[in-house]
Write a structure and sequence with these properties.
- There is one protein chain.
- It contains 8 helices and 7 strands.
- The protein is an alpha/beta fold.
- The protein has a single domain, classed as Glycerol-3-phosphate (1)-acyltransferase, CATH 3.40.1130.10.
Length: 228
């Protein structure tokens, strides 16, 4: 992270769009090096062909801090990630994090709305966005927690298709209990089929949310073992 930090400091000089794209490329290199030294093996599984030239709202399951490196490893197109404000408090990492993500502070409706506007602005500029619809770590033992509405509301309002991803091994590589749970091994990212939102309106948010939830849960049950 100390090696990456100087690159982060020059991001403002490149402008908002170019600087944002640049920091993801830097983080991708960081993740590759970090994976090598920690014995983690990145693998992408495409259940259907994926068009990297199309714009999406990417969503994925959220089970540990290990969900962060697969984002920069697996997304090969311009993207902005929605991340929680609390992460900026970590030394060094917090500076990198703030430069790379759209930070959401849930302490007030005004601050949440500001984050939504930033995400929509990225979409208007042809940049995809990434959201964890569960909001926080899933510590339930079930494949997924309930989803928040945000990603699906933005998808409908901007008519942007949703592309679900599965982070299959993240919890095994680093449990949500903490950073000291890190273990070497595979770290798979599964691309599911995109979900078109054409024709959906604000009244269909719950329907769209459940459709994505069902697709992701079924996928997780295929790649992982859960009690019925």
């Amino acid at each position: 992270m100390f090696i990456v930090l100087p690159f982060v400091l020059v991001v403002p000089l490149l402008g908002k769009i170019n600087g944002g794209n640049f920091i993801y490329k830097v983080c991708n290199v960081w993740a590759r090096v970090w994976y090598f030294f920690t014995g983690i093996r990145h693998k992408e599984i495409y259940e259907v062909p994926h068009n990297r030239n199309h714009q999406y709202i990417f969503v994925a399951n959220h089970s540990s801090y290990m969900d962060i490196p697969p984002i920069v490893r697996a997304l090969h197109q311009p993207v902005r990630v929605l991340g929680k404000y609390e992460m900026v408090k970590y030394p060094v990492f917090g500076l990198i994090y703030r430069a790379a993500v759209v930070v959401v502070d849930r302490s007030s409706a005004e601050k949440r709305a500001r984050s939504v506007r930033a995400l929509k602005s990225a979409l208007q500029k042809g940049i995809s966005i990434f959201i964890f619809p569960e909001g926080t770590f899933n510590e339930t033992g079930r494949p997924l927690k309930e989803f928040f509405d945000g990603a699906f509301r933005i998808a409908i309002e901007t008519q942007t298709p949703i592309k679900p991803l599965l982070f299959v091994d993240a919890e095994k590589r680093m449990h949500w209990r903490g950073f000291f749970e890190l273990t070497p091994g595979p770290c798979r990212v599964v691309y599911l089929d995109e979900i078109d939102v054409s024709g959906y309106t604000a009244s269909n948010i719950l329907l769209l949310k459940q459709k994505v939830h069902d697709a992701m849960e079924e996928g997780l049950r295929r790649y992982k073992t859960y009690a019925s």
